[in-house]
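Quick note —
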Amino acid sequence: MSTQTYEAATGRLEEIIKRLDSGEAGLRETLDLCQEGRGLVEFCAGELDAVGRGLEELRLDELVARLEQRPGGAAPVADAAAPSS
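Predicted structure written out below.
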């Protein structure tokens, strides 16, 4: 599934849900569709987590850049972020 895209995975999930909702799938097909769907949901969750981490990094990079532009640099924030004893 490494070449899978989030969009393709969600599209396939929609197809699986439609098929299951139709009531036409037999027992074995239902099991296979549920297993495939579970894998797709896990893939999509991983993609969303990765995007979320990327956005957090971008926001942190943006914050650091803004702080570095301020007079005095980022020293006050570094002190505030230091672990308390």
